[in-house]
Fold this sequence. Notes:
Elements: E1 2-10, E2 24-30, E3 35-43, E4 46-55, E5 61-70, E6 76-79, E7 83-88, E8 91-96
Antiparallel strand pairs: 1-2, 1-8, 2-3, 3-4, 4-5, 5-6, 6-7, 7-8
Amino acid sequence: MTGGCTTTVYNEPPIDSTQFVENGTVVYSCDGGLALTVDMFEIDGLGVVKVTYLSPRAGDGEVSIILPQSQSGSGVRYACDMAVLHLKGDTGIAAFI
């Protein structure tokens, strides 16, 4: 599943998602009605996000995946072998296998 996303809710004043916000939470509204809750935190100096969303594969239950920050030419990118979240400004692209 792949879709474009834009920020809709913050747990603090609006942030630029290309800047890491420790202990910040941002909710993205994506194509097809998908909502992603992105919790940002740091482990041993590395930016990490926990992405939570409702998945039809889980009977519309919540699914969470942890993504470490990875190299990006522009914006900020979090990725593992099962998902990619690329954020720039208040928009992003999410891809889940």
